[in-house]
């Protein structure tokens, strides 16, 4: 009998570091760069009150004489210098981008969470119960897919805003926007979860759960749901970028975030009014921030899709 001592068990952190998922991340430069960019932008948005040189939405801190100051140049009247210049109201563009990203990210995350909850729930019900439940849910999904998501979001936004009392419309605009985008994006979650549920419910562990008397709700929640989360995470990551773009599109069209709480889309809409008059920076820098945020999240979602796909390992 050998006296060689057994190797010490690895810690959870060490096991996570040595996992296939972590190895794939360490060997994917695009994923590393994308994660870094996303992390920096999210931290900059969350810490905007600490990072931003000015509060762009506090009228007491604004000076109209600083309006249209080019990036990095001193204002001819006040002598103030701004890193990314100022807009027509004298607001620091760098500060408006930080505060605007907070609105865009909040709407994006909240809308994706809403779409994920609705889509996963309906997908589980359709895949597991089948019959008329599946027919109704999938036909509704098919009908919604015949319309562009942005038109569905605009329709829902218009209806929800129409039934909101006028005195509360500006206060509820962000929540109405989240509702509109979330209700327009649940279909992808539902279709993928339904397909995965159809595969999982025929496996032996589900049959065993039925034999021991587990309820359908418990089987869906405790057994099937954990096994269909991988594609859901991939869709959620990609949908986050699409939700941010949808919010920016709606705000650009003037039916999104209110002027009192402008997002990146609102800032781009303001900037395009001065694009041909020489004040290019008012449009360029918010558009660049939106591009960097959406592109980085999309690239991260593409890597996540490959990393969670066992066929590509």
UniProtKB/TrEMBL annotation:
It is a multi-pass membrane protein. CDD domains: TM_PBP2. GO terms for biological process: transmembrane transport. Its main location: membrane. The keyword Cytoplasm does not apply. It holds the Pfam family OppC_N. Keywords: Cell membrane, Membrane, Transmembrane, Transmembrane helix, Transport. GO terms for cellular component: plasma membrane. It is found in: Cell membrane. Residues 101-301 form the ABC transmembrane type-1 domain. PROSITE patterns: ABC_TM1. InterPro entries: BP-dependent_transpt_permease, MetI-like, MetI-like_sf, OppC_N. It comes from the Bacteria. The chain crosses the membrane at residues 30-52, 103-129, 141-160, 228-253, 280-304. Gene3D superfamilies: MetI-like (1.10.3720.10). PANTHER family: ABC TRANSPORTER PERMEASE PROTEIN (PTHR43386:SF26), OLIGOPEPTIDE TRANSPORT SYSTEM PERMEASE PROTEIN APPC (PTHR43386). Belongs to the binding-protein-dependent transport system permease family. This is ABC transporter permease. It comes from Salibaculum griseiflavum. The lineage of its organism: Bacteria, Pseudomonadati, Pseudomonadota, Alphaproteobacteria, Rhodobacterales.
């Amino acid at each position: 009998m050998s006296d060689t001592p057994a190797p010490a068990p690895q810690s959870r952190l060490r096991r996570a570091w040595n996992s296939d998922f972590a190895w794939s991340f360490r060997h994917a430069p695009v994923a590393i760069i994308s994660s870094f960019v996303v992390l920096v932008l999210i931290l900059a948005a969350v810490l905007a009150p600490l990072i931003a040189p000015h509060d762009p939405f506090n009228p007491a801190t604004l000076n109209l004489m600083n309006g249209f100051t080019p990036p990095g140049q001193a204002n001819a009247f006040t002598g103030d210098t701004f890193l990314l210049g100022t807009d027509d109201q004298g607001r620091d563009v760098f500060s408006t981008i930080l505060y605007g990203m907070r609105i865009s990210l909040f709407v994006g995350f909240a809308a994706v969470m809403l779409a994920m909850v609705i889509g996963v729930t309906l997908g589980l019900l359709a895949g597991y119960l089948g019959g008329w439940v599946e027919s109704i849910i999938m036909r509704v999904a098919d009908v919604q897919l015949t319309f562009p998501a942005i038109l569905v979001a605009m329709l829902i936004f218009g209806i929800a805003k129409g039934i909101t009392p006028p005195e509360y419309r500006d206060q509820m605009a962000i929540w109405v926007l989240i509702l509109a985008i979330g209700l327009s994006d649940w279909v992808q979650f539902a279709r993928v979860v339904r397909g995965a549920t159809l595969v999982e419910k025929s496996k032996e562990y589900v049959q065993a759960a039925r034999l021991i008397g587990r309820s359908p709700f418990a089987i869906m929640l405790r057994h099937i749901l954990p096994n269909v989360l991988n594609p859901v995470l991939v869709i959620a990551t990609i949908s986050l970028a699409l939700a941010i773009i949808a919010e920016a599109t709606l705000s650009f069209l003037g039916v999104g975030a209110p002027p009192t709480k402008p997002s990146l889309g609102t800032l781009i809409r303001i900037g395009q009014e001065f694009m041909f008059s020489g004040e290019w920076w008012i449009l360029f820098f918010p558009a660049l921030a939106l591009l960097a945020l959406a592109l980085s999240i999309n690239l991260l979602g593409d890597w996540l899709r490959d990393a969670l796909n066992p066929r590509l390992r």
